[in-house]
Design goal:
By secondary structure, the protein is an all-alpha fold. Helices cover 68% and strands 0% of the residues. It is built from 4 helices and no strands. The protein starts with a helix and ends with a helix. The model has no long low-confidence stretch (mean pLDDT 88).
Length: 110
């Protein structure tokens, strides 16, 4: 994927994530009379929203990092081994920072 196309896709993804993060950080619904079950459900919803916010924030940072790699001329190269990241991987995940073998190693270390 050429860097112009990559930048456009990354900027679109960033705008979508920013909107999603804004919604997830939205004002809580006002307090109302509710049962203990409703309160438990609200807690579960809050936990789910927090988890989604954490994932979205992490994804946002990956996109910002990819845009920085474009600016530095390093986009499409693995940040660990400097080998090219496969075209198909960049098509599927334009924010990908690593080639498949290096990403696999990173995930096994977690």
């Amino acid at each position: 994927m050429d860097v112009t196309t990559a930048r456009e896709r990354l900027e679109e993804m960033l705008a979508d994530l920013d909107r999603s993060i804004g919604v997830l950080r939205g004002e809580p619904v006002g307090v109302r009379d509710r049962s203990a079950a409703d309160a438990g459900s609200d807690l579960t919803d809050a936990d789910r929203a927090q988890a989604m916010l954490t994932v979205a924030t992490s994804q946002r940072q990956a996109i910002l990092d990819a845009l920085k790699r474009i600016d530095e001329g390093a986009y499409g190269r693995c940040v660990d081994c400097a080998k090219p990241v496969p075209e198909g991987r960049l098509e599927a995940r334009p924010e990908a920072a690593r080639c498949v073998p290096c990403q696999g190693k990173r995930e096994r270390r977690r």
